[in-house]
């Protein structure tokens, strides 16, 4: 009894299949075992013998262990049982043992690659879920912030920067601003914002918007534009920063949406304080490329809906790109909100929007800009 158990353990058999290429399209299921000097596959229909002397071990594409002897026969024997590689008759034959070791290494390499693939897929799925959750959290928080809180955030930012700004009251420039923006403001969706435009004595052709609706226009911009549609285009972009709540979204993003959500749920006053404390962050940071493009797209839509020629912003940016003197626009001492430099990519995108626009004439006429 003991001897039979020992023999069985020393010479086990393994589930396998055999296949003769060119003769049969199907594999025959059976079992394989090793005996001195040979591998023996047996099924109800057949018996296949492969001599260990010429035995070849390798992995097929599906990861099965394949036995063959090209010098002896075309038969292929397959098994998925990796324990066959540790069989006594395999390990005692030096040449076959080395092939078995190579097969084990291949299997381990494939296993590692599979695990890595599973890890990468799991990581991407988790990252996607977190990204979706983060976007949902952001939308929820932004939608629950009253416009009045945004106004307070904008006022906090203004307190931070007002000592660096020189406000001017030029009647001609203010009239040009009003003429370019009134038709635009009248067609904006009602979201509770009251837009206020102020002139800043600064030679850099730029403008920036604060959360809540305050928009500041440099005198340099007013002196650079060649037609009022350019003013309308630049300010439609800034208005879009406000209506799309980019400043608020950046504050929440910088603080961490989940952290802000926790404060929102437990302490509304603390939530307001967190929002207000973001003023210093807004002073020191500029908008992301995604926000800039969104402002371009939304501003474009506002212009079209107001029946204003929407090419103004692209024309203004092209002028900045072509004039080497004006390229220093991003070197302003105050890089606030929309102080991103113009880029060829933005101009190309705006020109693409124009090519796709059905209506290309019949726009309303805006007043001429202030005399320069």
Please, could you describe this protein's structure?
By secondary structure, this protein is of the alpha+beta class. It has 2 domains: about 1-110, Pleckstrin-homology domain (PH domain)/Phosphotyrosine-binding domain (PTB) (PH-domain like), CATH 2.30.29; about 145-355, no CATH class. The chain is built from 14 helices and 11 strands. The strands form 2 sheets. Strands 4-3-2-1-7-6-5 form a 7-stranded antiparallel β-sheet. The protein has a 4-stranded mixed β-sheet with strand order 8-9-11-10. A hairpin with a 3-residue loop joins β6 (about 65-70) and β7 (about 75-80). α5 packs across α7 (about 230-245).
Characteristic key phrases:
alpha+beta; 372 residues; PH-domain like; elongated
How is the secondary structure organized here?
Blueprint: H1 2-10, E1 13-19, E2 28-35, E3 38-42, E4 47-51, E5 56-59, E6 65-69, E7 73-79, H2 88-91, H3 94-143, H4 147-161, E8 167-168, H5 171-186, E9 196-200, E10 207-209, E11 214-218, H6 219-224, H7 228-243, H8 246-255, H9 257-266, H10 268-276, H11 279-284, H12 289-305, H13 312-322, H14 344-355
Parallel strand pairs: 9-11
Antiparallel strand pairs: 1-2, 1-7, 2-3, 3-4, 5-6, 6-7, 8-9, 10-11
Helix pairs in contact: 3-9, 5-7, 7-12, 7-13, 9-10, 13-14
Give a short synopsis of this structure:
The chain has 372 residues and is of the alpha+beta class. It is built from 14 helices and eleven strands.
């Amino acid at each position: 009894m003991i001897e039979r158990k020992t023999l069985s353990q020393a010479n086990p058999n393994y589930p396998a299949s055999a296949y003769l290429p060119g003769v049969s399209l199907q594999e025959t299921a059976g079992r394989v075992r090793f005996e001195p000097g040979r591998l023996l596959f047996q099924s109800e229909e057949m018996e296949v013998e492969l001599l260990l002397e010429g035995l070849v071990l390798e992995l097929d594409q599906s990861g099965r262990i394949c036995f063959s002897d090209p010098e002896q026969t075309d038969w292929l024997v397959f098994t998925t049982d990796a324990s066959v590689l540790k069989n006594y008759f395999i390990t005692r034959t030096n040449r076959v043992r080395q092939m078995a070791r190579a097969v084990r290494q291949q299997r381990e390499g494939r296993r590692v690659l599979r695990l890595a693939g599973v890890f990468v897929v799991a990581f991407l799925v988790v990252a996607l879920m977190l990204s979706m959750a983060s976007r949902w959290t952001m939308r929820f928080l932004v939608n629950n912030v009253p416009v009045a809180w945004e106004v307070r955030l904008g006022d906090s930012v203004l307190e931070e920067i007002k000592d660096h700004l020189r406000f001017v009251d030029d009647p001609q420039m203010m009239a040009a601003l009003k003429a370019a923006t009134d038709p635009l403001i009248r067609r904006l969706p009602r979201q509770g914002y009251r837009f206020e435009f102020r002139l800043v004595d600064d030679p850099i052709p730029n403008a920036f918007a604060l959360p809540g609706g305050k928009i500041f226009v440099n005198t340099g911009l007013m002196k650079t534009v060649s037609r009022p549609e350019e003013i309308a285009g630049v300010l439609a972009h800034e208005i879009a920063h406000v209506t799309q709540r980019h400043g608020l979204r950046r504050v929440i993003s910088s603080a961490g949406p989940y952290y802000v959500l926790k404060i929102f749920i437990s302490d509304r006053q603390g939530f307001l304080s967190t929002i207000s404390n973001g003023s210093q962050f807004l002073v020191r940071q500029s908008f992301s490329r995604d926000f800039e493009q969104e402002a371009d797209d939304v501003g474009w839509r506002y212009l079209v809906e107001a029946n204003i020629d929407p090419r103004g912003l692209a024309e203004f940016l092209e002028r900045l790109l072509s004039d080497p003197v004006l390229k220093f626009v991003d070197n302003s001492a105050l890089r606030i909100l929309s102080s991103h430099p113009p880029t060829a990519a933005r101009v190309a995108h705006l020109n693409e929007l124009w090519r796709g626009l059905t209506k290309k004439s019949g726009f309303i006429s805006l007043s001429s800009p202030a005399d320069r």
